[in-house]
Design goal:
The complex is a heterodimer of chains A (509) and B (156). With 509 residues, chain A is mainly alpha-helical. Chain A contains 20 helices and 2 strands. Chain A has one domain. In chain A, β1 and β2 form a beta hairpin. Chain B has 156 residues and is mostly helical.
Chain lengths: 509, 156
């Protein structure tokens, strides 16, 4: 395993792979730093550039975006008090106050190096756990896979922050998308509604691009000409990062680093909870375990370390889920899964054994991306404030053009662009209706697999009780029911506590 | 009176029922014990049930809804116009071709979100539109071998 990793690390340092990896990491840092531009949007923009590359080049660029984006949000979180991405929300709590005290360089340094250490610890887990988990998944039959996908979907639908019912309905809408077109077993046309291009089914990448890009852009457009820039910029952004000092500060808090990394990893492994929850939960845990919780929020290093180490470890966790089980942990890994599909590579438990070089190449790209990310932020943070002033009026049409290119280039047909537009409208309407988007996307991705495994199971043995009597399958189905029940209970408790609160809240896509 | 959730639930219910009816004509398969209509019916049935629950929960919570503060003013007219410009762009793509349609789209979308004031601003916006169209065309067609739409009318 380590020999393969060593070979892949040497391979990824060749300019052929290093160039797309560095470009992806730079794009990720910039996208992460831009308030209103999420990592998902950045990876959607990068996607069409990967079509002409070989699979590892493309996936290295995407791993770079993911790592760079998870860390890039800290720049604006610290310097402007506005998290560049939701995964840097908790970084603002202590990062911005520290910067306002005249220690912007220290705050940036703590964030970057905490991201680095958290990410690398996540990398250890990624390299060591993916293979064994995939080996376990290889033992699964169709009953277990069916139940695993149902569990992933119900968990995502149940853990969304808005409403459990809307989460479940959003997942069901995603499943409906997959029943339009041919049935996945015999290829028999069904529910094509008389539309020719539906006969091949609806490809998930235009759906994903449309839903996320328009939901993000149009919710920003509706606030344009209305809202000023929030947060107070740091007066003097000319700062120096005291690297050795901040590394010392992080490494003298090993429990904090390890625990926050673990929180990030576990949340990353669970589908669709994501970095936005990881950093807030790690911050909350750090505060609970601290001997001086009252100091949190005043600009102390613990707050920054907890938030940033967890959000980069979260990336490692998400990659484990997609590489071992073929289940995307979030929208970013869903796009990576799409990139795999474009290159004809089947994701799932067989991925690592059938594509050893590619899998270890992704591990290597993930690790090297952390070094590049440190270099980019250490050298470029002081220039970042200029980048974040790019007007959205100029940025949004460029993003939309790249979305159109991404959808069109999938198979060089305009039908994919029309699908992008239709789902763009749907995505925006769903967000306005308070529906979470993550369950919808997971439904679109897993729908075919759920049906295929259901039919395989019934063809092997028509007894439906086997779904419940096979121990792993039964356990997963029980866990699905429990996760929805738990979410219902939690929402009910939350609603009682926050009765009377305002209706309009920011929606977490 | 139904609220936002109620109407959303009704829309989902209507779509799932229409599709549920459409599954009735699907033939059985001799090779597979459950035909191509079984899984869609299962999914659509669940969707219909969840939609009904959403309508019911919205109806039950109408008192709570009335007490809530109104949403802050959002610029929905701008959103509608932005969607319209985008739809015009994708409809024009096959006729005008990628380069011409993209210049027009980037300029129109930019001008819609932040109307340029003065000739200099207009020139900058036009310059950006031309650069975006040409650079993306060059990178994708020449660099990455991705063929972009040619115009039926312009052959460009």
């Amino acid at each position: 395993m380590f020999e393969l990793l060593g070979t892949s690390l040497v391979g990824i340092l060749h300019w052929h792979y290093l160039l797309p990896l560095a470009a992806g990491t730079l794009a990720g840092v910039i996208g992460g730093a831009l308030p209103g531009v999420t990592i998902t949007m950045t990876i959607i923009v990068v996607l069409p550039f990967t079509f002409g590359l070989d699979p590892l080049q493309g996936l290295a660029a995407m791993a770079g975006v993911y790592v760079g984006g998870s860390a890039g949000g800290l720049i604006t979180a610290i310097l402007l008090g506005i998290p560049g991405t939701p995964s840097a929300i908790a970084t603002t709590f202590d990062g911005h106050p520290m910067a306002k005290k005249g220690e912007a360089g220290r705050a940036i340094g703590l964030g970057v190096w905490a991201s680095f250490f958290g990410g690398l610890l996540g990398g250890v887990f990624l390299v060591t756990a993916t293979g064994p988990l995939a080996a376990i998944a290889l033992e699964f039959g169709p009953w277990e896979f069916f139940s695993l996908f149902v569990f992933a979907l119900s968990m995502v639908a149940g853990l969304v922050e808005t409403s459990v019912l809307k989460g479940l309905l959003s997942g069901a809408i995603g499943l409906i998308v997959t029943v339009l077109g041919n049935d996945p077993v015999l290829g028999q046309p069904r529910l094509t509604l008389g539309i020719d291009f539906l006969e091949g089914g609806i490809p998930f990448l235009p759906v994903l691009i449309g839903v996320f890009a328009f939901a993000q852009i149009m919710t920003d457009v509706e606030r344009m000409r209305r809202r000023g820039v929030a947060g107070a910029p740091v007066a003097d952004a000319r700062f120096r990062v005291p690297h050795l000092r901040v590394i010392g500060e992080i490494l003298t808090r090993p429990f904090l680093l390890a625990w926050s990394t673990l929180v990030g990893l576990l949340i990353g492994v669970l589908p669709a909870i994501g970095g936005s929850a990881a950093n807030v939960m790690a911050y909350d845990q750090a505060k609970k375990f601290s001997r001086h919780p009252e100091k949190f929020g005043s600009g102390i290093p613990e707050g920054i370390i907890a938030s940033e180490s967890s959000n980069n470890a979260n990336v490692g966790g998400s990659l484990v889920t997609i590489m071992a089980f073929g289940i995307p942990g979030d929208a970013v890994t869903a796009v990576m899964l799409g990139a795999l599909t474009i290159h004809g590579i089947q994701s799932g438990p067989l991925f690592i054994s059938q594509n050893v070089k590619l899998a270890y190449g992704i591990f290597a790209a993930y690790i090297v991306a952390h070094f590049i990310m440190v270099l980019i932020i250490a050298l470029g943070a002081r220039f970042a404030l200029r980048v974040v002033t790019v007007p959205k009026a100029a940025l949004f049409p460029i993003v939309l053009v790249l979305c159109v290119v991404g959808a069109y280039a999938l198979s060089n047909v305009m039908a994919n662009v029309y699908i992008l537009a239709v789902f763009g409208v749907l995505g925006y309407l769903l967000v306005k209706g308070g529906f979470p988007l993550a369950p919808l996307i997971l439904g679109v991705i897993l729908g075919d697999q759920i049906e295929i495994n259901l039919i395989r199971a019934v063809m092997t043995d028509p007894n439906p009780w086997l779904f419940f009597t096979h121990p792993i399958s039964g356990g997963l189905l029980a866990a699905s029911v429990l996760s929805v029940a738990f979410a219902l209970w939690q929402h009910h408790r939350h609603r009682r506590r926050s009765a009377g609160a305002a209706e309009e809240e920011d929606v977490d896509f | 009176m139904l609220g936002r959730d109620g109407w959303a639930g009704l829309a989902c219910l209507a779509v799932s029922l229409v599709l549920l009816v459409a599954t009735r004509g699907l033939p059985q398969s001799a090779l597979v014990p459950i035909g191509p209509g079984v899984y869609p019916r299962f999914v659509l049935g669940i969707t219909a049930a969840l939609s009904l629950l959403l309508v019911a929960s919205d109806f039950a919570g109408r008192g709570r809804r009335a007490r809530r503060a109104p949403a802050p003013g959002l610029n929905y007219a701008l959103v509608g116009a932005a969607f319209a410009v985008f739809f015009l762009y994708i409809l024009a793509l096959p006729s005008l071709g990628f380069r011409i349609a993209t210049v027009a789209f980037v300029l129109a979308f930019h001008a819609l979100l932040e109307p340029p004031r003065g000739a200099r601003r207009w020139a900058l916006a036009l310059g950006l539109a031309v650069v975006v169209a040409l650079v993306s065309w060059f990178v994708f067609e020449r660099g990455l071998s991705v063929l972009l739409p040619r115009g039926r009318w312009t052959d460009f």
